[in-house]
Predict the 3D structure of the following.
Amino acid sequence: MKRKVAIVGFGQTEMVARSPKTKMELANQAVRRAMDDAQITIKDVDEVVIADIEFFHGSGESEMQLADCVGHYMKPVMKIETGGTVSGSACISAVHHIAAGACDVSLVSATGVFPAPPPDVIPRGAFLQASLSAGMHPVWEKWCSVGAIGLFALMANAYVRLSGCTEETVAKCRAKAARNATRNPYAHLRGIMTVEDVLKSPMLMAPLRHLHMCPITEGSAALIFASEERAEKITKNPVWVKDVVSLHGAQYWGALHEMFAPKERVALPSLVKACDILYKRNGITNPAKELDVVEIYEPCTWAELVFMENMRLCEPNEAWKLADRGATEIDGELPINPSGGVTCTNPGMPSTMLRFGEVALQIRGDAGEHQVPREVRLGLATGFGGTGWTPLMLLSKYK
Amino acid sequence: MSRSKSQGQYEVPPSHMITSVFMEYPMGLFMGKFMRELKENARLVGMVCRQCGHTMFPPQALCSVCYGENFQDPQWVEVGPEATVAGLMEIKMPWLNPWTLTLRASQYPVGILMVDAPGRSPGVIWHFIAETDVSKLRVGMRVKAVFKPREEREGLMEDILYWAPVGE
């Protein structure tokens, strides 16, 4: 990057199943919290980047509706729409703007609100899975409308077959996420969950159970990025963006053979390649040792395990053994998702940004009860979305 | 909702909007031919990329692997009707038929299928498998497309009724 860029502010709303607030009100709350965190006002912000998937809200041109609440009146604004990765794409875009010298302070806002038919007309989960399928080819794949659950059931199925991962380990891993979320005041599902609870939860598509899958969450998040000069004036604790990578998959989900119909190991090809690029560019040879904390976008518990392997945090088909012996716990040798992750909180649009923001909090030492009990110098956050896209952000305490 | 009350706000019912409109999507030149063959002849057709031999199923002008152009003289091939099961979804949750926005009654599992094709890669499709007892299904088993009768086919993926296991 031509100029150094840092995170100087992060804000999020309390995440809930259904918020009484509008999308604009939620967006505003997160933006104000991010500005409070950075101790700046909207006057200090040069540009706004909005991350949105508009059809989930059933309205278009959200940059118009959001103008007053996010605060881009008489400011440059751009909106990005890239599916589940959207807030990752928006953050990476903001980083590029600053690195290229186009501006010095960039505010990124993402809000998830999911209007739906009354639950007695169409169940909310089924409606959202069909909505997710709206991104698919209208003729070829959309008709099936199994959404993310179908895809991850395929993946989980393959993972069990190839790795020998047990249901108990997955349940343990889910219970770990729940335990972490109880320490995160913003998380959506904040109840203790036992291995028993997970094992008894209803099967959606074997081997994927209800509690393995992320919830439908409403809420908003905002991140503020600044150039080196401005970041050092704004805060004593800037979190430096060491590197970003963003890679896309093919058009059809069916094209992701390595993820849904693998022969030896389950792989999300964009994640494998993005990590290769990022590690090489930053001289990371042993990511499991060199990274102090990792926030993975895991739409289901199974994905946390598969993505760990794809990120080379362990050998292929071995992640479940690592998780089984507690290595990924908040005080383990490689803490993964101390925030509770996506399986505890998934507001969709802000979810990738929450991963980036949570790593920033860990590096600053501001994660409160879910702070990793060690010095956090280097952290990696991932995003995930259609069609098998990966945005990555490597964050560091030191320039 | 106790949260909102404690903030001095009152719970009010949400507004309602009824949005039931028929949408017409263009089928496109290449998918159009696929659908015509499916509807009229119960035949599955795809394309093999002239540049790299990748099977494009559904057919399209640009290869997703090498970005080779196949607008001129596309290499049409018949694929299937047999396929190998590569993965299974045993659906136990409520799910929607997006054409009608009603809950599906189907008990059929959905499989990800590697369809026999002459290119260097198989065609990939997901579709129903005729066997509802999933304990009888396994990855690697062979299935064959079963089509609806001509008068019931309407140019949708559901014109394929399901894929039935073939004897081993």
